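Kindly review these tokens for lecture notes.

. . .
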Amino acid sequence: MFIENVSQELAKILHLHLDKDHLKWMEGKIDGIIEEKSSKDLYLTYSLMASKINPIPLDKMPSGENEVIQYLETQNANLLQIGRVYLLIRVLEADENFFFNKVENIIQVSDTGELETFLKFLVLMPNSGNYRNVAVEALRTNIATIFDAISLNNPYPSMFFNDQQWNQMYLKAAFMERDLSLITDIEARANKDLVRIISDYAHERWAASRKVDPYFWRPVGRFLNDTLVEDMNRLFLSEDEKDHMAAALACSISENPKAKALLEKYPQIKNKLDQGLISWSKIN
């Protein structure tokens, strides 16, 4: 997911929502920051935006669908967030070598709300992969809004996290009981280490007589070994129909003959699967 013409699309939205005076103030400040390469004015303008632009919902959008608008709608972006993201993108587009460290400084001193905004819209930044450390650091937080900003409805982890970082995020999302269905590209980023971690985590939960979210099993299908097949058998024996569905979906895409044989033992569930009545969206 590489979105083009981001600043142009954000400018259109700002023009639809800001009056002439505020629009003139914002564009004048940005032009001045770029022309004078002023770190001080960048920091000041970023801060002043909270008093100049209200965090109201976006009730008007430019005509025509595009990836920028779709992403903003997914993230429920408000006008202040758009203004701040626009400012950062404009200065980075003008001179990334000079402004990169300044943007990093803004992130380091940001409050919770500002950091949440940056993480949500990080994927829109020029060369956004350069901010991976910030995104990974956000995984360590116990503040749900910060963790959600980078992990849910956000393609950034799928695009830039290595397997270790991805696995850390997935496990923590399960631990924090977040909605796993909102994580992007779960199956595409599945890997053997993650599957082992999922099995270990599930066994810990079961040993403590605690439930495991059926959706948690979504990455395991392509990597079912004998241990995981036993886990699938346990799901089939569960009293929860959603556990049956998760096991059926995992076994159906496995190349392990034991997984395929296990699925054949449950013809009623397999028939539902064959009829398209079972899917991960129905489990959530």
About this structure: The two ends are 25 Å apart (CA to CA).
